[in-house]
Each structure stands twice: as C-alpha cells, then as structure tokens.
Specification:
- It holds the Pfam family MFS_1.
- One of its GO terms (molecular function) is transmembrane transporter activity.
- The chain has 20 helices and four strands.
- The chain is mainly alpha-helical and 480 residues long.
- The chain has two domains: 52-245; 248-444, MFS general substrate transporter like domains (Growth Hormone, Chain: A).
- The strands form two sheets. A two-stranded antiparallel sheet has the order 1-4. The protein has a two-stranded antiparallel sheet with strand order 2-3.
- A hairpin with a 5-residue loop joins β2 (14-16) and β3 (22-24).
- The relative contact order is 0.15.
C-alpha cells in the first residue's frame, strides 16, 4: 500500500452540481449523512489518500470473486428456477392432483407475484436499514421453507395460500425428468411434482445457511479479508462514485428517484418485458407439448432452452463490456427472441422441430433485463435513491409477471396465437425503450463533461463517499 505525501486540497464552501443542488462542508462534518466507508477511509488513511497498485487490485478482486461469485451464482440461479417448477409440475400431474380447472392454473402462475409485489418496497427499505448479508440470508432460508411447504398442498386454495416458488430449466428439467422416469418405473408414495418442490426447498434452506456464513454485509466485515484488505477493498471502488452503503433514509433522494426519467424507463421495460416472461415461464412445458411432443419429452426438451439463455447472457455481457455498449449489445438477445416467437406463430403445426427451435430462441430474451439490473447497480447512486429505483423496477417486474400467465387462455390452446402476438408486440416496444435509455445516458454524460470542464468547478474531498446521487454528482459517469 503506497501513500501520497500531500493532502487533498481544501474544500470549497460549496460546489454547484448538475441539478442545481449545493453541497457544503456540513456533510463532511456530520459523517452520519455520508457513506459508511468515509469513516473507515479517514481512520485508516490518517488524512492521506490511499493508492492501490494494479497487482493489489487484481489480488483483491480475485479473493472477492472466489468467495462471492460461486454462491451468488447458485442463489441467483435458484431464484430464476423458482419461476419454472410450476411449468414442469403442470405436466407431471399437479393440475390433476390439485383439481385445477378453468383459469386456476393461470392464476396460480400469477399469484406468487402478488406477495412479491406487496413486500417489494418494505424489503427495499429493510435492505437499507438492516445488515445486507444477514437479511438476504434469512430471506433465502424462509424462501426454502415456503418452497418445501408446497409439497403439502392438496388443492387450489392451498396452493394460493402457500404461493409459488420452484425449480427450473437446465437443472430443473433434468431433475424433473429423472423423478418422472424413476417414479414411473419404481412407484412412489409421494406425487412426483411434490418431490421436486420438497427437494429444491430443502436445498434452498442449506444454501441460505451457507449464504449467512459466507456473504458479508459489505467490505468492512468480510471475515475472509484481513483488516488492511478490508480498507483496500473499499478504496478500490472509490472510482465508481457510489460508496458501499448508507443506513439513513433521505427524502430528497426518494423524490429525485421519482422525478428521474430513467426510473420510469426501467420500470416500463420491466413491466412490458415480463408479460412475455410470466407467460413463457409458466407455460413453456405445455407449449412444447403443443408442438407434438409428449409430457415426458417436454421435461427433457426444455433443457436446451436454459443453455441458450446461459450462452446469450454470457455473450451479451462480454460484448457489452468489451465494446462499452452494454444496453445496445443486450438488444441482440431480444431481437433473437422476437424472431423465435415469429417462427412459432408462422411455421405450420406439422413443423414441430422448427417451432421448438423458435422456443429455444425466445430464451435469449433476458439479456436486456439483466443489463438493466446492472445499470441500476452502476448508474444509480445515492443509497436511498438506489433502493427506491430497484423497488420500483421489481414492482413493475411483478405486475408484468402477474399479467403474463393471463395472456395464455385455455380456449386458445394448443397454438396460443393471441399470447404469442402479444409477446412479439411487447418485445418490439421494449426495443424502443432500450434505445431511449441509451440515448438519455449518452446525453447526460455529455452534460456532466461540460460541467466538469467549466470554470470554477471544484471536486470535493472524498466526494465519492458522501452518498451523493448520480444526479447531483458531476463526477458520476453513466455506464452505457
């Protein structure tokens, strides 16, 4: 760790930023209004600026990635899989066992998101006020308990009361197929679809307990980092102008979030894009059956769809970072999905293989959704503002997923043409929204560059740790 000998220049009385707000020295004097990293940096640096060389930065990144990424990938994968078990279960006897008739299945697919919707904003506030890692771990464990309870459901009313969590595509398809074959051959005292819910629920509980032990609340209490490395891990993220967290709700940041056009552009995308997601996630097994395959084959043939999604997400992420065009590159997955739905609609019923390929292409659609999640992380600053934008985004996600299953009406089976046309229209509208998001951030970056180049502009000392919003911080550069 190297240190500069000179101290940072003295603070000006105030500095004007791009939205006309003024930030004065009071913020630094009252550190409880700043980011929690500020005190740690000031204590460790003894008033001097800490510098990190390339080798140290690489070493820290490797340690952090190896401790966080594998478990985060498993948890996020399980989170995605909870949307798809109901689709597998629908062709494994669940509809018959629960005596689902009429629109019951559609509402069962939508019902989970009513609970999600009701708890979304309170959860965002708890995430700001409570230790992040511990709160998240408790949620994962409780989620596993609810998932396991679904195995005890006996009718539609019970299914609605428990709500829905589940398993999913690559692993889910293989497990569901194995359970279906095994119980068919050897018999079972428990329905096959219940075994899937029970197994995945117990696994989720185990993952939640591991999460509690491994995942820290922030860099400052990561047990697998030394005391010195904890401070360095905070310092290495200074450049992103976002800090590591602030536990105080700030009304002005909440209001700024509501006035920011990007908040609503994100929310609009989540709403419209998740109408197709809600429909396809709940009906893809039945859709594959409609292509002329058996229920058992649909469990197996759904697996490649998960592989398509993995490849699309990796390719989109790599190309986006390489070219510095995250939003534009993510649009490729959406175009691919749109072509896939058109194939399902346009190809004749006899062309089972072609329509199945069309379904596989639709699985590239999540690339923009994931890109926008990353933009909320990288392009929204101010802890209260960030949690507010994330909550609005996920509320819209819930609403879209509630609407989605309702577009697949029983009377439209087996082709579900109205639902498929709805999906194509939604994808087209989403492409326009993504183009607007890219244009807006590009124009804002140009405005901020002009402010930084203007006469009299001065950057505050430790401005990165003051819990400023992206709107009031002229040093903040948006990722495209």
């Amino acid at each position: 760790m190297a240190e500069k000998n000179e101290k940072s220049p003295p603070l000006p009385d105030s500095v004007s930023v791009d939205n006309g707000r003024h930030i004065d020295e009071r913020i630094l004097k009252h550190s409880h209004d700043a980011d929690v990293a500020l005190q740690a940096i000031q204590q460790a640096g003894d008033g001097q600026v800490i510098e990190i060389d390339a080798a140290t930065n690489k070493r820290l990144l490797r340690i952090i990635d190896w401790h966080l990424m594998p478990l985060m990938c498993v948890v996020y994968g399980m989170n995605y899989l909870d949307k798809t078990t109901i689709s597998y279960a629908s062709v494994m006897g669940m509809k018959k066992d629960l005596r689902l008739v009429g629109d019951d299945y559609q509402w069962l697919g939508s019902m989970f998101y009513f609970g999600y919707l009701g708890w979304e904003y309170p959860a965002s506030q708890l995430l700001q006020r409570m230790p992040l890692g511990k709160y998240s771990a408790i949620c994962v464990v409780l989620w596993g308990l609810v998932l396991s309870c679904f195995a005890a459901v006996e009718n539609f009313g019970g299914a609605v009361a428990i709500s829905f969590n589940g398993f999913g595509q690559i692993v889910g398809g293989a497990v569901a197929y194995g359970i279906a074959k095994g119980t068919d051959k050897n018999g079972s005292s428990i329905a096959p679809w219940k075994i899937v819910f029970l197994a995945t629920g117990l696994f989720t509980i185990c993952i939640g307990l591991v999460f509690l032990w491994v995942i820290p609340d922030n860099q400052l209490n990561a047990r697998w980092l030394s005391q010195e490395d904890r401070v360095l891990a905070v310092e290495r993220v200074r450049i992103n102008q976002q800090g590591i967290g602030n536990k105080h709700f700030k009304m002005y940041q909440f209001k700024e979030a509501l006035k920011d056009p990007m908040t609503w552009a994100f929310a609009f995308y989540a709403l419209v894009a998740d109408i197709p997601n809600g429909g396809i996630s709940n009906f893809f097994s039945q859709l594959i059956v409609s292509f002329g395959f058996t229920a058992e084959q649909s469990l197996l043939y759904g697996i490649p769809g998960g592989a398509v999604e993995v490849v699309a997400l990796i390719a989109s992420g790599f190309m986006g970072d390489w070219l510095g065009r995250r939003v534009m590159c993510s649009m490729g997955g959406l175009v691919t999905a749109m072509v896939g739905v058109i194939l399902i609609i346009a190809l004749p019923l006899a062309n089972n293989d072609g329509r199945l390929i069309g379904y596989y292409m639709t699985q590239a659609s999540p690339t923009p959704f994931v890109a926008l999640l990353s933009l909320i992380s990288s392009n929204v600053a101010g802890y209260t503002k960030k949690t507010t934008v994330a909550a609005i985004y996920l509320i819209s996600y819930c609403v879209g997923n509630i609407i989605g299953p309702q577009t697949f009406r029983p009377k439209d089976a087996p082709r579900y043409v109205p639902a498929e046309i709805t999906i194509v229209v939604c994808y087209g509208v989403c492409l326009i929204d993504l183009a607007f998001i890219w244009w807006w951030y590009s124009s804002q970056n140009k405005k901020k560059a002009m402010i930084r180049a203007s006469e009299g502009y001065a950057k505050l000392e430790n401005q990165e740790w003051l819990d400023l919003t992206d709107g009031e911080n002229a040093e903040f550069v948006y990722t495209l």
